[in-house]
C-alpha cells in the first residue's frame, strides 16, 4: 500500500491519544526523523512519550510542548562503530546481547508495566524490536516506522561472527512479527519479518531559515563555495588541513570536539546547530550515508560527496537511491584521509539533483498512526510475515538482492539494477542473453589471437566492451541510463591499442572439499558461470586517469607515472566500491616489492575496496615470486558472473582470470598449474583467506564436462576424469552466504593442523619409547605398530597420507574432541600452518576436523574408481552414499548449516520416494553434499542424466522455496578452465574512412 503526497495538515483528533515512541540507540538519524513525526502528532493534540538515548536538544529544539515526554532509556545498541566509518560486527552483536538479550525478561516486565501506567493507545518503534513484543504482552497495538530492520542488518554480522550469535537475529525477527504493520520509508532494505507495509514519502525536517539568512548570520557571502562536513564524529586521528579545500572554499564541520583545532578555512559548528538549515545553505555535503543525511540532501537538492561505511547493510539501498536521483559522488576513503578532496567537490557542484518526490512523510506517517490508534485497521489478513521467518529468508539476504525474489524492491532500486547493463556480480545473470543494446556487436573487434570457443558469455562480454567506446562520448547525457561502474569503465581503455581478455570459471566441488589443505585427492568440475577480465598495458602519458587519480599525480609533481585502474562490474549488488586505483609504485619499498603483510594492510584500510586485493594482488605476487617489474600503466575491467558467497569459488575465478590477462598483456608464459599456485598465494598472503589450492587449480586447469582430479600435495594434477554420459551433477544454492575467510572454516582448518601435529608427536613418542632402554626389549611391541609406518607418521606432511585404519587403531583415541588454543601452544608450540593463527583464548574442534580429511581422501579415491566402473544402479547408489557421508562429516566438523542440511534432506526424500523406489520412470537423484568451505553456500547433487532427474531437481527447488521463501539458484552446465580458454588479444575495428 502506498500513501501519496498532498495530505492536508493533520487535523486534531476528537480523541486525546497517548503514543509510546521507541527510538533505537543507533545514532542521531533515527531521533531526527522521529522528531518530525512526533511534531505532527503533538500538533494534533496528542501526548507522545519518546523512549530514547538521544540528547534532549534533538527533540526540544524542534518541539516545545508539555505534551512531549522524554524518557532516557536505550533498549538496543544498533551497530557499534570502531570509528566514524567502520562498524565492529562482533562488538555489535556482543553489545546487543548485553543490552537487549541478557536483561530481556526484565526489559519486557518493565516496559509492560510502564506502557500500562501511561495508558498508551499505540506503541511506535523506530526500530526497537523488543518494543513490539512488549506492546503485544501489554495488549497494545504496535507499528514500526523505518527504512531498515535490525534482523537484516545483523544477518551478515552473524555470518562473520559465527553461528552462536544467530539466535539474536531470530529473536529480533520474531519480535518484529508482533508488529501490526510497517510504515516504510524510501531507501528501504528488505524487511521480511513484517506482515504488511505502507509506503510513505521522505521524512525530513523542515527549514527554519533561508539560505540567505543562514549565510548572512555566519558572515559568508553568496559567492563563497561552502561544503558541510557531516560524519557524526570524525575518523580517529584525523587532522584537517587547509589545503584539503579548493581555493576560496569554506567547510562547516559538524561534531568537532571542543579541543580540536581547525585550519582557518574550516568553521566549527556548535553541537546543537540545526543541521537542515546549514545543509540548505551549503553547496555540497561531505560525509557518510545514513537515512537522515540522504533524505535531507535529496529534499534540499544538496549534492552529497559520500564515503562508504564498512559493514552497514542499510547503505547500498540509500546510496543507490541517492545516485539514481543524481545527487551523489563517491569519494575513496584513501582520498578523504589524505586530503585529495578537490576533484570530488568540483564534481559535486556540477550535479543537478533531480529528486522531486514528496518530503512530507512525517505528516503522512503521523496521520496513519493517529488513525491506527483510533481503531482503523490498515493490516490485511495476509500471514506472509510468519512464512518469511525462515532461516534462508532471514539469514540469507546478505545484500543479495535479485529480481524475482519474494520481496518488494523499490522502483528506484529496480530501475537502477535493470539499467546496470551487464549485471554480472548477481547470480541471476543470464550469460546466454546479456542485457546489451543490440547495436553493439562483438564484430566491432578484430580478434588478433585466441578463440571465443562459441561461449555466449564471452560474446556478451565483448559486446559490452564494444558498447563502452560509444558510451564514453555520450556519458554526460546518460546519467540515469548507466550506473557509475559503466561510466568509469567507459574511459578505461585506449581503443587504438590491444586489449587482452581472459576467462576463468567458478567450480563445483563434487567431492574433496576442505580436505585439500590436508593433501587429499579432490574431484572438481568447472561450472558454466565465469569471470572475464580485460587488461590493457598503457604508456602513463596516454592513460585517461580518473579525476582523483589525476589530482594525486599532480600533487606529487613528478609527471605521468604508472597507475593501476580497475573497474569491477556488479558492485551495485553488494556493498563495495566499483572502482579502485593506485600508483604501481605503492607496491615498491625502495627497489624491492613490499611485504605481503604490508600489502594485506594496504587493502584492508578501506573494506569497500578490499575486493581489489583479489585483482591487484596478482600484480604483487608476480613481482615477488617471478621478479616481474611493471613499468607501464595498467587498466583492468573485471566482470564476474560467478555469484559471491555460494561456495563455487568466485574469488578463485577472479584471481585466475586477472593473473591470466595480466600475464598475456605482458608476454609472460606461465603454465596453468603454476598460475593456480600463484593465485593461491594471492588469496593466502594478500587477501588473507586460508584456502587450499583446489579452487584455483579447477579454475585454471579444468575442462568442460570433466572432473579435474588432483592430489593437493601441493598441487599435482592426476588428469581429467570423464563424467559418464548417464551421470549428471547439479549445484543448488541454499541462500546462506559462505565465506572461506569466515571464522568457522579457519577454525576447522586449525583443528586439522592441530590434529596432525598431535599425531606426529604420538608416533614419535611411541617409536622413541620402544627404543628407550637401548636393548630392543620393546621390539615386539614396535613391530605391532609397524616400525616403518611409525617413522613415516612421525614426519607426516599431509593428514591424507594417513590410512583410516591406522588413524582408528593408534591415534583416534588420543585426540581430544576439543582443545584450547593456549593449552595446545603450551605443549606443541606451533601447529605448522603458515596461513592461520591460533587464538589462545579459543577452543578448537580437533578430532572431527582431523578425521574428516583422512576419511575424505579415502572416499574420493573410491568415488573416482566407481566413476569408471560399469553403469549400474549399484554404481549410482554407491556414489551417492559417498557424498552423503561427506556431507555428514562436514556437519561433524561444525561446517553444516540449516539451509544445506534441508537441501540434502530433500534430495534424500526424493531418492527414497515411492515413485523412485518402485522404478516409476528412469530418473532419480542418488546423493548430495555441502560444497567448498561449508557453513552455507551450495549443495552438489548427483543423479541420472535424464529429464526425470531434472524434474526432480526442480521439485527440490520448489520444496525448498515453500519451506524457506527462497528459490534456490541452480548451477548446471560446465565450461573450459582458463588454461584451455587461453586468452584473446583484440583491437577495436576502426570505421572505414569516408570518401
Automatic annotation (TrEMBL):
Keyword Cell wall biogenesis/degradation: no
Molecular functions per Gene Ontology: ATP binding; galactokinase activity; L-arabinokinase activity
Limits of the Galactokinase N-terminal domain: 496-537
GO cellular component term, pick one: cytosol
UniProt GO BP: galactose metabolic process
InterPro entries in the cross-refs: Galk_glycosyltransferase, GalKase_N, GHMP_kinase_C_sf, GHMP_kinase_L-arabinokinase, GHMP_kinase_N_dom, Ribosomal_Su5_D2-typ_SF, Ribsml_uS5_D2-typ_fold_subgr
Domain GHMP kinase N-terminal positions: 614-702
Keywords: ATP-binding, Nucleotide-binding
Name of the featured protein: L-arabinokinase
Organism: Lactuca sativa (Garden lettuce)
Source lineage: Eukaryota, Viridiplantae, Streptophyta, Embryophyta, Tracheophyta
Amino acid at each position: 500500500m502506498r500513501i501519496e503526497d498532498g495530505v492536508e495538515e493533520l487535523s486534531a483528533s476528537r480523541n486525546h491519544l497517548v503514543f509510546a515512541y521507541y527510538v533505537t540507540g543507533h545514532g542521531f538519524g533515527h531521533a531526527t526523523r522521529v522528531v518530525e513525526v512526533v511534531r505532527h502528532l503533538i500538533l494534533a493534540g496528542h501526548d507522545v512519550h519518546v523512549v530514547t538515548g538521544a540528547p534532549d536538544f534533538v527533540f526540544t529544539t524542534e518541539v516545545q510542548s508539555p505534551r512531549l515526554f522524554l524518557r532516557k532509556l536505550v533498549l538496543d545498541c544498533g551497530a557499534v562503530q570502531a570509528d566514524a566509518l567502520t562498524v565492529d560486527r562482533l562488538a555489535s552483536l556482543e553489545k546487543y546481547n548485553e543490552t537487549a538479550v541478557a536483561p530481556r525478561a526484565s526489559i519486557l516486565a518493565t516496559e509492560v508495566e510502564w506502557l500500562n501506567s501511561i495508558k498508551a493507545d499505540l506503541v511506535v518503534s523506530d526500530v526497537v524490536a523488543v518494543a513490539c513484543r512488549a506492546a503485544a504482552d501489554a495488549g497494545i497495538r504496535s507499528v514500526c516506522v523505518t527504512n531498515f530492520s535490525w534482523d537484516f542488518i545483523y544477518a551478515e554480522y552473524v555470518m562473520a561472527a559465527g553461528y552462536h550469535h544467530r539466535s539474536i537475529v531470530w529473536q529480533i525477527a520474531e519480535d518484529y512479527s508482533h508488529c501490526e504493520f510497517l510504515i516504510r520509508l524510501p531507501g528501504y532494505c528488505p524487511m521480511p519479518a513484517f506482515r504488511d507495509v505502507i509506503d510513505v514519502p521522505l521524512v525530513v525536517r523542515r527549514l527554519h531559515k533561508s539560505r540567505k539568512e543562514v549565510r548572512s548570520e555566519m558572515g559568508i557571502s553568496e559567492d563563497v563555495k561552502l561544503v558541510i562536513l557531516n560524519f557524526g564524529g570524525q575518523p580517529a586521528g584525523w587532522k584537517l588541513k587547509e589545503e584539503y579545500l579548493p581555493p576560496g572554499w569554506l567547510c562547516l564541520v559538524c561534531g568537532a570536539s571542543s579541543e580540536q583545532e581547525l585550519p582557518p578555512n574550516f568553521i566549527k559548528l556548535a553541537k546543537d546547530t540545526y543541521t537542515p538549515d546549514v545543509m540548505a545553505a551549503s553547496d555540497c555535503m561531505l560525509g557518510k550515508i545514513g537515512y537522515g543525511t540522504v533524505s535531507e540532501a535529496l529534499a534540499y537538492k544538496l549534492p552529497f560527496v559520500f564515503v562508504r561505511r564498512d559493514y552497514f547493510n542499510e547503505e547500498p539501498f540509500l546510496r543507490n537511491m541517492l545516485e539514481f536521483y543524481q545527487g551523489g559522488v563517491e569519494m575513496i576513503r584513501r582520498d578523504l584521509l589524505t586530503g585529495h578532496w578537490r576533484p570530488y567537490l568540483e564534481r559535486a557542484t556540477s550535479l543537478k539533483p533531480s529528486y522531486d518526490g514528496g518530503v512530507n512523510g512525517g505528516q503522512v506517517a503521523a496521520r496513519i498512526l493517529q488513525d491506527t490508534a483510533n481503531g482503523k485497521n490498515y493490516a490485511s489478513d495476509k500471514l506472509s510475515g510468519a512464512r518469511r521467518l525462515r532461516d534462508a529468508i532471514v539469514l540469507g539476504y546478505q545484500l543479495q538482492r535479485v529480481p524475482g525474489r519474494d520481496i518488494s524492491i523499490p522502483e528506484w532500486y529496480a530501475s537502477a539494477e535493470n539499467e546496470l547493463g551487464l549485471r554480472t556480480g548477481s547470480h541471476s545473470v543470464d550469460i546466454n542473453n546479456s542485457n546489451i543494446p543490440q547495436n553493439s556487436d562483438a564484430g566491432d573487434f578484430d580478434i588478433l589471437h585466441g578463440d571465443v570457443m562459441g561461449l555466449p558469455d564471452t560474446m556478451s562480454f565483448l559486446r559490452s566492451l564494444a558498447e563502452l567506446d560509444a558510451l564514453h562520448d555520450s556519458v554526460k547525457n546518460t546519467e540515469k541510463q548507466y550506473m557509475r561502474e559503466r561510466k568509469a569503465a567507459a574511459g578505461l581503455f585506449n581503443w587504438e591499442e590491444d586489449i587482452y581478455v581472459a576467462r576463468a570459471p567458478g567450480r563445483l566441488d563434487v567431492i574433496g572439499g576442505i580436505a585439500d589443505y590436508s593433501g587429499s585427492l579432490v574431484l572438481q568440475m568447472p561450472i558454466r558461470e565465469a569471470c572475464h577480465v580485460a587488461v590493457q598495458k598503457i604508456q602513463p602519458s596516454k592513460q585517461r586517469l580518473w579525476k582523483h587519480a589525476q589530482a594525486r599525480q599532480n600533487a606529487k609533481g613528478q609527471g605521468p607515472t604508472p597507475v593501476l585502474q580497475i573497474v569491477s562490474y556488479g558492485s551495485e549488488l553488494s556493498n563495495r566500491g566499483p572502482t579502485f586505483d593506485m600508483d604501481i609504485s605503492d607496491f615498491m619499498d625502495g627497489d624491492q616489492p613490499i611485504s605481503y603483510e604490508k600489502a594485506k594492510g594496504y587493502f584492508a584500510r578501506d573494506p569497500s575496496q578490499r575486493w581489489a586485493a583479489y585483482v591487484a594482488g596478482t600484480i604483487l605476487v608476480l613481482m615477488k615470486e617471478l621478479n616481474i617489474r611493471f613499468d607501464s600503466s595498467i587498466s583492468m575491467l573485471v566482470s564476474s558472473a560467478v555469484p559471491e558467497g555460494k561456495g563455487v569459488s568466485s574469488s578463485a575465478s577472479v584471481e585466475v582470470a586477472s593473473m591470466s590477462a595480466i600475464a598475456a598483456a605482458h608476454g609472460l608464459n606461465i603454465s596453468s598449474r603454476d598460475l593456480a599456485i600463484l593465485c593461491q598465494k594471492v588469496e593466502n598472503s594478500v587477501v588473507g583467506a586460508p584456502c587450499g589450492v583446489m579452487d584455483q587449480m579447477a579454475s585454471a586447469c579444468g575442462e568442460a564436462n570433466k572432473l579435474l582430479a588432483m592430489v593437493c600435495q601441493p598441487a599435482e594434477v592426476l588428469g581429467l576424469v570423464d563424467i559418464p554420459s548417464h551421470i549428471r551433477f547439479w549445484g543448488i544454492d541454499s541462500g546462506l552466504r559462505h565465506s572461506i575467510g569466515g571464522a568457522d572454516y579457519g577454525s576447522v582448518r586449525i583443528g586439522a593442523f592441530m590434529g596432525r601435529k598431535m599425531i606426529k608427536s604420538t608416533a614419535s613418542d611411541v617409536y622413541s619409547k620402544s627404543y628407550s632402554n637401548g636393548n630392543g626389549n620393546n621390539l615386539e611391541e614396535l613391530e605391532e605398530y609397524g616400525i616403518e609406518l611409525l617413522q613415516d607418521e612421525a614426519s607426516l606432511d599431509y593428514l591424507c597420507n594417513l590410512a583410516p585404519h591406522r588413524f582408528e587403531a593408534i591415534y583416534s583415541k588420543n585426540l581430544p574432541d576439543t582443545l584450547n588454543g593456549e593449552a595446545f601452544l603450551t605443549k606443541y608450540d606451533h601447529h605448522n600452518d603458515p596461513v592461520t593463527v591460533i587464538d589462545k583464548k579459543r577452543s578448537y574442534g580437533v578430532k572431527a576436523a582431523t578425521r574428516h580429511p583422512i576419511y575424505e581422501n579415502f572416499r574420493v579415491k573410491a568415488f573416482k574408481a566407481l566413476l569408471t566402473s560399469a553403469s549400474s544402479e549399484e554404481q549410482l547408489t554407491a556414489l551417492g552414499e559417498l557424498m552423503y557421508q561427506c556431507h555428514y562429516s562436514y556437519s561433524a566438523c561444525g561446517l553444516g548449516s540449516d539451509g544445506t542440511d534441508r537441501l540434502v534432506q530433500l534430495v534424500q526424500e526424493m531418492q527414497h520416494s515411492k515413485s523412485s523406489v518402485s522404478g516409476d520412470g528412469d530418473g532419480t537423484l542418488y546423493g548430495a553434499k555441502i560444497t567448498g568451505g561449508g557453513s552455507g553456500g551450495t549443495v552438489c547433487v548427483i543423479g541420472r542424466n535424464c529429464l526425470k532427474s531434472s524434474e526432480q531437481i526442480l521439485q527440490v527447488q520448489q520444496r525448498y522455496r515453500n519451506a524457506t521463501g527462497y528459490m534456490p539458484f541452480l548451477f548446471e552446465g560446465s565450461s573450459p578452465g582458463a588454461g584451455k580458454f587461453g586468452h584473446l588479444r583484440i583491437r577495436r575495428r576502426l570505421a572505414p574512412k569516408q570518401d
